[in-house]
User: Fold Glycosyltransferase from Mesorhizobium marinum.
Amino acid sequence: MRHSSLDDLSIAILIPCYNEEQTIGDVVTRFRATLPSASVYVYDNNSSDLTALRARASGAIVVREPRQGKGNVVRRMFADIEADIYVMVDGDGTYAPEDAPQLINTLLTGHSDMSVGTRRGVTDDAGRAGHAFGNRLFNALYKRMFGRDFTDIFSGYRAFTRRFVKSFPAVSGGFEIETEMSVHASQLKLPVSEIALDYGRRPEGSASKLSTYKDGAKILWMFAMLAKETRPMRFFGVIAALFAASSLVLMTPILIEYAATGLVPRMPTWVLSLGLLMFAAMMVVTGLILDSVSRGRAEQKRIFYLSIPGRPARQEAHSLARPATKRGSSRAA
Assistant:
């Protein structure tokens, strides 16, 4: 279905791909039919099959990214491509290209910088039981650590403004990139939106590139690193609490015995408990110092974000499908 109200917008469809020859041709063809005025970019990440050939034959602009990993591909895309609106989607056919206008409409009507297509039923069946459990676990952990802005931090179907794309300091190299995007938006309190979209299954013979345990461990590590960078007082405070608790467990019996007898018979244990207590105090001081540094970095990021022009007024007037309600992070379904 053609949406003529988008013709005066510069829209880029970004598709990072690795060995998706079975699906990429259909994905590109459907995006070109749905958004004829958009440019479709497929960045081939060292595929060993005919992904690049199928994408080019379907009308996509194909670029090769030799650094392996989705995060590396997205970082290259964001640096290379100029547009008013960016739509990022996986090339495995699990997201419907026909939903793109609705996703863009959520971005525009919500005056957001990022809109996320949350996946209906993904926690019920994400291909494997491990994936479904991981989705529930990491989304709950995200809400606990960074806020309640998102309900599906791993969705690969997102729309962005140029302001978001050009101010996003992508660091991660793999599947952690969606988590990093979400934390960036939460840290700077950027306006974001969500809309529930159908999530399909891969076709027969197409395999997921996501490893339940290996990529789960990478994502967990990314959570820890992002917490250290954006919530250092909380991060080091937890470490300090653990060492302080260990110190008190070791110290209490010795203090009780000293009060009763005036003797300290277990000197090595006493020295260890004092060392743990001092280490806990160091973690508190470290957290306080890095918290000030983190606030300064966040202010610099915010200033750089604001230095990038927002959407022209004419773009904000468009409405394509049903409007989405805005929240500080707004959610539409």
Summary: The longest strand covers residues 11-17. The two ends are 21 Å apart (CA to CA). Residues 232-304 form one domain. Confidence is low (pLDDT under 50) at residues 313-333.
